Amino acid sequence: MGESAADPRRLRVRAGLAFVQVLRPALYALLVLSALFTFWSGGPVAGRTLPYWTRSVAPTIFGIFLAIFTVYRFALMRAKKYPAATGLFQVGLGALIWVLLLPSTRQKIRPPSAPVDEVPALMSSPDPRVRALAVEVAGYRRDGARYAAEMIDRLEDADPAVRARAHAALVRLAGHDEGNDPDAWREEGRKRGWLR
To answer: Quick one: pLDDT at residue 114?
Structure first.
């Protein structure tokens, strides 16, 4: 009686390994396709950009690759032809890569395109403490002249602390005092090119 007839479980493992060996070229093809779609969906290649929906193609193809690869590795581990720790590590790493390929993950990882300047919005805050702080911050900025129009408007603010900080910021910016009159500061701003 042959060895395979004696142990039907070994026969199933060998048949599974033979089937998975046939899938090995498909694994490489899926991996290459996944890589191509990943790089191409990141930006234009040779002047051509893929449509937005194709961003989900790379994770889908890689997911199919990972499923087949997992079956392949587990079959090898079950047949004691591959170390279990290495196989589990490779499958886990593949799962991590798949998560990183998801379009939603790529958008979260990508750094913001440009910093947003919140100072003008804060100068219009309903809270006078926020307005006062925003005016003071604008006055200390290196490019404080770009906030000159808002600082001059704050000279007419209902809150005296905001008016005082706006005045101090304008004096710091101009290097001399034009008083508390917003029209005098507007004239000064036009002379200096702060206002149009």
So the answer is: 67
